[in-house]
């Protein structure tokens, strides 16, 4: 299952979708919020720097929960250094990288996919 987004007003719905899917997939509350923040940063970048919106998808596989944000932009480079404290912009992708256990950018024909992985914690 996935969710499309096209305008800034879609951001709260995207966050809600990600939270619901991540909880259902077994992430603990801290990781759920981390995923929601990371997706919010990526979707905001899409809306600011590309046209046509994008798509978010969440699924569980092999002890991890994955989330993909796809759009028509160019692939960002990872790893990212945190910009200097006096920099006006550029923290979003560095924050995404800090929140995830793994993040990769994949160039596909006509789109870019940023895939994030969050490890699930064993239930005690």
UniProtKB/TrEMBL annotation:
Q: Which InterPro entries match?
A: Anti-sigma-factor_SerPK, HATPase_C_sf, HATPase_dom
One short Pfam name that applies is: HATPase_c_2
Q: Which domain of life is it from?
A: Bacteria
| UniProt keyword annotations, A-Z | Kinase, Serine/threonine-protein kinase, Transferase
GO terms, molecular function: protein serine/threonine kinase activity
Q: Where is the Histidine kinase/HSP90-like ATPase domain?
A: 7-118
What SUPFAM superfamilies has UniProt attached to this entry?
A: ATPase domain of HSP90 chaperone/DNA topoisomerase II/histidine kinase (SSF55874)
Under what name is this protein listed?
A: Putative anti-sigma factor
